[in-house]
């Protein structure tokens, strides 16, 4: 699939995701911060997030690298040093195709011993055109999560992702928080799938998309995406973004997450690379 990159769109995509993940970490309850050693920092235009209790890329990475303004070598070294001091060893430097300075940034990263890891992440985008009728009908019911259901939201997301139960307080903390909307899909009275939306400066980041194994293939994520986009448009959102793992070239059609967003009007605009040390 060919990249179609508009720099202003790319910048907005990276910024809203950066702010969403920073806010998620900032919202972490004090006991979770203590037990999981979760931390975050603004490093110029970049943000570093770290969680030693969940040593995977999503929770240990630099976001916004070279977005909005060029990064120099000193700033890159500062970011790497912060990650070395705070993050799991598998942390990633994430670099979009429009990161600045375009001609040198990847070269600097490679010189410091980092290597490209895997296919990267497909960054998805849609504008505020109204949603059409749902492509995959479902009998599941999507509901906005209330404050008293926060732990229920966290448990569904944790179980569906296969993450340790210790992360439930962190995932639960976004419920009722300013700029966040959390949703659950229900089979009767049973919550079976989750999704969240972070709104910032008329942009929305969609994430925490997870469905319990026994309920996959029943249209939960299509319904959750549709609900979030519809409510985002009503709230004045002009652009939506989300991401999935980038499938191998030519195999996008076999990736369920990719297809769920494609059916809902999203387009892959670029693949963002993950650079890791010592792989």
Automatic annotation (TrEMBL):
Domain N-acetyltransferase: 140-279
Alphabetical list of Gene3D superfamilies matching this protein: 3.40.630.30
InterPro entries named in the record: Acyl_CoA_acyltransferase, GNAT_dom
Ranges that cross the membrane: none
PROSITE patterns the UniProt entry points to: GNAT (PS51186)
Name of this chain's protein: N-acetyltransferase domain-containing protein
């Amino acid at each position: 699939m060919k990249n179609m990159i508009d720099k202003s769109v790319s910048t907005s995509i990276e910024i809203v995701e950066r702010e969403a993940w920073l806010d998620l970490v900032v919202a972490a309850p004090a006991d979770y911060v203590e037990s999981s050693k979760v931390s975050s920092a603004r490093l110029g235009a970049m943000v570093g997030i770290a969680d030693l209790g969940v040593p995977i890329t999503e929770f240990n990475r630099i976001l916004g690298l070279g977005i909005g303004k060029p990064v120099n070598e000193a700033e890159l070294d500062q970011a790497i040093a912060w990650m070395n001091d705070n993050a799991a060893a598998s942390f990633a430097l994430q670099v979009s195709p429009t990161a600045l300075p375009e001609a040198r940034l990847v070269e600097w990263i490679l010189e410091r011993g980092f290597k490209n890891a895997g296919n990267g992440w497909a960054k998805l985008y849609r504008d505020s055109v109204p949603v059409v009728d749902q492509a995959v009908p479902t009998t599941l019911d999507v509901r906005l999560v209330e404050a008293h259901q926060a732990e229920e939201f966290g448990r569904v997301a944790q179980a569906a992702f296969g993450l340790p139960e210790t992360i439930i307080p962190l995932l639960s903390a976004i419920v009722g928080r300013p700029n966040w909307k959390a949703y659950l899909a229900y089979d009767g009275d049973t919550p079976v799938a989750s999704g969240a939306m972070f709104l910032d400066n008329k942009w929305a980041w969609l994430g925490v998309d997870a469905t319990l194994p026994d309920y996959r293939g029943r249209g939960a994520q299509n319904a959750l995406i549709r609900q979030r986009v519809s409510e985002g448009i009503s709230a004045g959102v002009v652009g939506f973004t989300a991401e999935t793992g980038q499938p191998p070239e030519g195999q996008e059609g076999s990736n369920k997450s990719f297809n769920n967003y494609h059916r809902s009007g999203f387009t892959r605009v670029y693949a963002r690379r993950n650079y890791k040390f010592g792989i």
